[in-house]
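Usage

Read records sequentially. Each one opens with the input sequence:
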Amino acid sequence: MLLFVPATVPLQPHSCLSQYQKQKNCVEGTPACLLNQKQLLPKAAPLPTLPDLHTLTYSTTFMLRRSILRCNLSVHHRCSRLASPATRSAASSKILAAAQQLVSPMSSQEDQAADGKLKMLCLHGFLQNGNILRMRIGSMRKGLKSRVHFQFHDAPFHAASTLTEQQIKDVGGSTDGLTWFQWSDLGPGKRPSLAVKFSNWDTTYASLCDALRQQQPDGLFGFSQGATAAALFLAALQTAQRQGKDLDVPLPKFCIVCAGFLPRDPEYAALLESAKVDVPTLFVMGASDALIPPARSHALMDTFDQRTADMFEHPGAHMVPTCTGEFKQQMVSFLGRFDSDASGTVSVGTSLDSLDDATAAAGAEQQKTEAAAVFDKP
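and closes with the structure output:
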């Protein structure tokens, strides 16, 4: 989507912008105060407020936001050379305030876009983050875009706090990757899912409680390590609420666990087994998953109340399957049980024709590309 300036604000071209306007990273409607050096900070009027500077919609991506910010900052630095120090300081404050809005994962406009849809908070896998997961579930976001508003939350720990740089490289990650758990017994070449001693779950639990208080999702989605984190969170939250604690945290109405596993840490496994989570949950697993074999996903599923647990097994490996055909039908059917609980009204139904053939084909092609990269090391 584009960055707009209200029609009431006059725009006058400036020569220093010509090269930026020819680049893809520069969008139409650059704020008027940056387009004209004479309007940078008029003496008789303050800079326009943030709502006057931009209008972002739900589909605005992080990459577009970053491009807009880079363009505006570049223009600002060139134009500000002609302004006084006081003017530059005031303009910089406005730019920084706009930057916080532009790179935030959920703007007020996105909240408005959630009206009438199920809100689903998504938890990424090991060495990922929310933005990476957002890109890797592109097919699902397209296939369910009329039904689900996707939210994302980052894990509280950096993997580098537990693993050495070499260990991170051994599992194909980077030092800025995130993790939902910390552990103390992981040897060279081992994946975190094989650890038998996890720690600091309280930090993860508190982080997720805050996310639910703030974002008020209807349900959870987790992939790989994030799927196990979602399962553990439900177990911990239900256990706490049965004891009269954390009652201000909204219990999710549903959960989708994709490639999750039962922790080998006896304490964490016992939490799941004792809680017998009864939140309706769909377990998704890959028959060819070598990182998380189906048996480990079944073991996690067995700790849930079987009256509210459903399963979908796809023929693929460690990945979120393409949201078409049988998998989409399963997702629509599962989510359709909760549509009346979403804010506003939303018709989920069982129809699979909400996307045209071109969109479905694009989603399938994107998922093929993602499959090669989604080797999240849980």
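Summary fields computed downstream for this record:
- Residues 62-80 form the longest helix (19 residues).
- The CA atoms of residues 337 and 348 lie 9 Å apart.
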